[in-house]
User: Fold this.
Amino acid sequence: MIYLYIIIMALVTYLIRAIPLTVFRRKITNPFVCSFLYYVPYACLTAMTVPAVFYATKSFASAFAGVAAAVALACCRRSLVTVAAGACIAVFAAEQLFMAI
Amino acid sequence: MKNNFTEGLKDGVPIALGYLSVSFSIGIMAVSSGLDIFQGAFMSLTNVTSAGQFAGLAVIATGGTILELILTQLIINLRYALMSLSLSQKLSEKITLWQRLVIAFANTDEIFAVAMNRSKSLTFSYMLGLQSLPVIGWTSGTALGAAAGQALPDAISSALNVALYGMFIAIVVPAAVKLRPVLIVAALAALFSCMIYYLPLFSGISTGTSIIICTILASAAGAVIFPVSQDKNGD
Assistant:
C-alpha cells in the first residue's frame, strides 16, 4: 500500500514537471509572461521559507539565529552547502546556549 | 558534449552535498511515518522533491486517501510547472522530446536555479551532469537519515530542520542584494505568506495553497512593476 502511495506521488510530480517542458516548445515572447516566470523561483522559495522557518526548530529564538546566520553567509556569497550548514550550526549553538542559561 | 557533462557534474556538487544533509531529515521523518529504509529511499529516488515528500509523508502517516494525496502533490508541486515552463524557454533548441522527458524528472528548485543562472546554452549533457549527483545525494541522504532514525539526539534533528530553508535563503538573498526588483518581489512574497499564516481570515488556506497564492501574486506584481527585458532574462 505504501508503494502505491509513493508511485502515485511520483507520477503526479513527474507529470507536473514534464508537461510544461514538452508541450511549450516555442519561445515565449510576451514580456509579462517572461517577467512573471523570471520572478517565480524567488517568490516561491521566499513564500516557502517565511514564516515557516521560524517554527521549524524548538524555539523561535533559535530559528531566528539560524536565519540570521544564513542571511549573513548568503550576503557574503557563500555556497549553498556553507549557508545551509551555517544555519544548522547557529540553531544548534543557540539551543545549547539557551539550555545552559 | 562530454565537456558539458563534466561541467554539469561540477555545478551539481554543491547541490548534492546540500541534498545529502537536507534529505537526512526526510529520512528521519519517513521512518517516523511508518516507512522502512528502502521505502524512504525509493520515495526520494522517484519524487526528488522536498516539500512534496514532506506533505506526502504526512498524508501517509495520517492514513489519508489517494485523492487527498494527489491533491496535495498537485498543489504543493504546481510551482514546478512554472519552473519547467521557464526552463523550457532556456533549453537549447536541439534538445529532443525524449531528452526533455528525462530532464523533467529532476527539475528541482535548486537545479532549476543553477540552470537558469548559467550563461551558456543548456544542452542535454549539461543537464544530465547537473542532475546526476543531486539525485544520488538526495536518495542516499534519505537512506542514511532513515537508518539513523530516532537514534539521533533531539538537539541535532532540530538543527537539521533548517538545512532546507538555509538553501532557499542561499538562492534568494544574493539575487535580492544585487537586484532591487528581486528584493521587492521576495519581500512581497514574504508579506503575503505572513498575512495568510497569521490573519484569522485566511486560516482555512493550507500551506500548499498559500505557496501558490503568494508565488502568483508576488511574481505578477514584479512583472507589472519591473518588466524584465528579454536579454536580461538569463541573468
Notes: Residues 2-160 of chain B form one domain. Chain B is about 80% helix and 0% strand. Chain B touches chain A through 104 residues (CB under 8 Å). Residues 25 and 156 of chain B are 10 Å apart (CA to CA).
